[in-house]
Amino acid sequence: MVKGSGPGQPLLAYLNYGFGDESLAELYGDEPWRVQRLRGLKQKYDPGNRFGFYAPIDPKPGQA
Questions:
Q1: Does 54 or 31 have the greater pLDDT score?
Q2: d(Cα 50, Cα 10) in Å, to the nearest integer?
Q3: Less CB within 10 Å around the terminal CB: N or C of the chain?
Q4: What ranges in 1-64 are assigned the alpha helix state H?
């Protein structure tokens, strides 16, 4: 994956191929607005985090 990302580029992983030790930026994109938007959607549609098993996004800001 690192070779395919190119020199000097951030590591990007296809979500289903992650091992679980990737950061949210590596899974969902390194632009801050992406995780913020996902957290907003999570708060709206899954505030109880019932669908938070694989590559979870905590609906509370400031948590991973």
A1: 31
A2: 30
A3: C
A4: 2-5, 24-28, 32-45
- pTM, two decimals, is 0.62
Which residues lie closer than 8 Å to 46 by C-beta, 6 or more apart?
Answer: 52, 59
Model confidence pLDDT, tens digit, residues 19-30: 777 788 878 888
Question: Among all chains, which residue has been given the structure tokens 């191929």?
Answer: 17
Q: How far apart are CA 9 and CA 64, in angstroms?
A: 23
Indicate whether 3 pLDDT > 50. Answer: yes
Banded model confidence at residue 37, pLDDT cuts 50, 70, 90: very high
Q: Is 42 helix (H, G, I), strand (E, B) or coil?
A: helix
CA 15 – CA 7 distance, rounded (Å) = 21
